[in-house]
Amino acid sequence: MSSQANKHRCPVCGYPDLLEPPRTEAGGGSYEICPCCGYQYGVDDDDRRTTYLAHRELWVKNGMRWWSRGIRAPKNWDPQAQLSTVASGLR
Ligand SMILES: [Zn+2]
């Protein structure tokens, strides 16, 4: 279960190991919660109207803390480096 092909990157924080694409090709949210930043696709975006950027700014402001209690942060997790993988691509 280590195939990178099945992993998806969180567009909010850059976390690279989401199990599903955040949004399907049809545009629906996955309802997966990013274990890193806590953003839930299909809920935070569709229901709460929180943009990726707004959630990211909040996450950064709160110290870029690992969100999930059930899923552990990767070894040598570097939120800054992770964020840099998506930071430039978002409006
Ligand atoms: Zn995230």
Write the layout of secondary structure elements.
Elements: H1 52-61, H2 79-84
Helix-strand topology string: HH
Using DSSP, what is the number of strands? 0
Instruction: Outline the biggest β-sheet.
Output: none
Radius of gyration: 12 Å
Shape: globular
Total of helices: 2
Distance between the termini: 33 Å
Mean pLDDT, all residues: 91
Parts with pLDDT < 50 across at least 5 consecutive residues: none
Strand content: under 5%
- Which structural category do the helix and sheet elements fall into? mainly alpha
Task: Explain what this protein looks like in three dimensions.
- It is a single chain.
- By secondary structure, this protein is mostly helical.
- It has one domain (1-69).
- Helices cover 18% and strands 0% of the residues.
- It is globular.
- The termini are far apart.
- It binds zinc ion (ZN).
